[in-house]
Amino acid sequence: MSWQMVVRRQAVISWRDEQLLGAYTLFSAKVQEARSAFEQRLLEDARLYDTVWDPAGFAEPHIDAELRKILPKALADFLDDAATSLAKIAPEFTELSDALRRSHMFNLPQAPQAETAEPAKAVAKGQANSISDKMALPDAADQRWEITKRVEKLVESAGGYGAKGAEMVQKQADVFVEILQDKVGLRERVRIAAQKRIASHWMGESGDPRSVLLQLFRIIDGTTETARMTTL
Amino acid sequence: MIIADVGNVLLREVPNHLAAGLESGALNLFGSVIRDVSTGQIAGFLQEAAPLVNFIPNPALAVAELALSAGQLVQNEFVRKGLARVEEGIEGLSQLTTVGLGLSAAGIGVSVAGFAVLAHRISRVEKSVHGLADRVDLLATKIDQVRQDLIDADLAELKALAKALDEGWSLANAERAERQWHDVAKGALSQQARFESRAEHVLRDDRDFLLADPMFDAVAFANSLRVAALAACNESNAAHEAAADGAKTIERLTGNIGVVDLVRVSLSEAKVDVGTAAWDEAFLAAKEQAAPKVQQMRQREAAIATRTASLAALERQGISPRDWLAAARAEQEAPILLMLPQAAV
Q1: ipTM score here?
Q2: 3-class secondary structure per residue, chain B
Q3: CB distance B275–A32 less than 8 Å?
Q4: Any CB–CB contact under 8 A between A7 and chain B?
Q5: Residue-averaged pLDDT of chain B
């Protein structure tokens, strides 16, 4: 093997390093961005049922949706830059670089959206939404509803009192929900579910189906291998 | 006298045009050649020489070894400042770097700096292997070859071959010397293959880059003995082929290992959640830790690939490899010599 070939092959492996390390950085930044948006959704939209019984059912479609919003463009730009820098190594890599630029086909995870809950019964007219969004439960025979039904009953019982009494009970219920969601760590369960989803489907290093990061790694590794073969 | 002719093409100082090229980045150092970055043409060849031995007992040696990781820019800086001044004292990290590279298992050019330097190189490999003894025990690889005692025996054999190579230069009878060198080349080939096999097993079954690293060094060292022995026999083509074989072997072993591969191993051990600030921190730390190790791999590949680059140019001027090596062994001043390609044309 001539030393000139070694120079070329080192340039290719250095290109691979640049891309894969760059991919890690890109994914980490985008995941953090998506997680901020997800956090907002968690605070605003997650119901007691989600956090208690189905954290993954809420977390997975939401975190997937956030990442699906921001990653495709970032990945296309990333591959474009990678292709440009590959072509700069040697004119022989122009074709390979063009092929890389066209490798925009990623299988992006999309967890099915959990069923939307029925609107909750109004606690008191005009006060329903803020409470019911967090506590509304589908009418199911499932034993899992037990805890949340009790909460519902507590709130409904306020309906028999006057508006002032209802307001008071509503406030109590809000506080109760907040305690359950935060202090008891229910929201944390959703965050953990989202993190698991990111770790397996978006930035996972192994597993089937391949994470998006691994899909990108395979594209870069495949290109690297072909480029190195041409320098033999 | 032929050695005097060789002396005419050896330089102990870097000419101004090369210094300027290195300064601007138009030239860079790749293994033992100074190359034009835009054309890829060789602008100079480096060759280790006998005074390299002076750096072994130097307390600053430890720094020199560390400085191996400092990178190409630093090496260029050293060459730019002038090779002749290397032995005048330790002026900075930049100077230590190329000396460190010279003392590494791969060396600079053909290995002729004497047994002390060769022994030092092999003892560094031994030290690395012993430092990783606990990892050897944990290996999933259970082949006999990766047993510590067998590794030690092979390293001892390599040291004996280095001694025999050096002794060859002292033999009065040229025929006997050549016979001895041929034996060294044969023995070194066998050791190169043994360590290559170990490195392959450790990489394939355990993906343990840290443990594989001294094996890579041993492969590089064995190959350097092989090339030096064949060059000393004036077997130019064989020396060149041996160097090419070494380059191919080491490239196959380490050529596809990048910083990212070591980073992935570190991250898998770090147990931090992906896409978090803690992960970012672990990622940066892993990158910083991996970069110098991979830089050493690249330097080793470059050193082996360029080992015999000067021989063809020398032969065009009628200077045999043996005379070139003899001149480097007889050198009194500079630990590393420079030859310009024009001088040999």
Answers
A1: 0.81
A2: CHHHHHHHHEECCCCHHHHHHHHHCCEEEECCEEEECCCCCEEEEEEECHHHHHHCCCCCHHHHHHHHHHCHHHHHHHHHHCHHHHHHCCCCHHHHHHHHHHHCCCCCCCCCCCHHHHHHHHHHHHHHHHHCHHHHHHCCCCCHHHCHHHHHHHHHHHHHHHHHHHHHCCCCCHHHHHHHHHHHHHHHHHHHHHHHHHHHHHHHHHCCHHHHHHHHHHHHHHHHHHHHHHHHCCCHHHHHHHHHHHHHHHHHHHCCCCHHHHHHHHHHHHCCCCCCHHHHHHHHHHHHHHHHHHHHHHHHHHHHHCCCHHHHHHHHCCCCHHHHHHHHHHCCCCCEEEECHHHHC
A3: yes
A4: yes
A5: 79
